[in-house]
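Attaching the record inline, Q. Sequence:
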Amino acid sequence: MSAYVLPVPPVASLRIEGRDERFPVHRIYCVGRNFAEHAKEMGAEVSRGTPVFFMKPADAVVPDGGDVPYPTATQDLHHEVELVVALGAGSDDIVPIDRASAMIFGHGVGLDLTRRDLQAQAKEKRLPWDISKGFDHSAPVSALVPLAGRAHPGGGDLLWLEINGERRQQAPLSEMVFAVADIIHELSKLFALRPGDLIFMGTPAGVAALKPGDAFRAGVDGLTEFSGRIVG
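Structure, as predicted:
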């Protein structure tokens, strides 16, 4: 057995509904501009040509909600509620669209937390905006609902987010510009997909600021929901 010069970090993982095992997180891929109305509110164009991708580190997940620390270096933390797809199989090759769904282990709902002020500064200078997305605790995620024995979330299922009991974001999944199978296909052109990968599928319009003390509740109707609080 190999020895390491430093302690091996714990594996980031998520709870699985109805099971004792946990889901180990390999990578977190995120889809940008996948709801047209959100793209408009951010002053961006939507194209059916090529999806926009960015990433978060695996250990950015905050399992099952709970307390989410307000991040450093920002005065403008924003919420973005998203359908989360968890892969149970991988591929070194390009995945055909008609085979993509067979790779899915299950689904959940998550928040793509964003340091909006840092993102705006980076965009203004035409610089990468990784620091606005890939920070500690930037990916609260619900428990995963295994796909076995149930249907994929449907186009009419409502994705939603409430802050302090007020509905901030909502849209049917049918409004996604790129469907889940399309995104898996496109990602496989760029990366070797692996079991344990998570895909955040993009957010609808209504993104806004969070402050310490805010309570959130997010869900996809007919699938799952979870809740938590932003703490100082």
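Helices lie at 36-41, 97-100, 116-124, 180-188. Residues 116-124 form the longest helix (9 residues).

More tomorrow.
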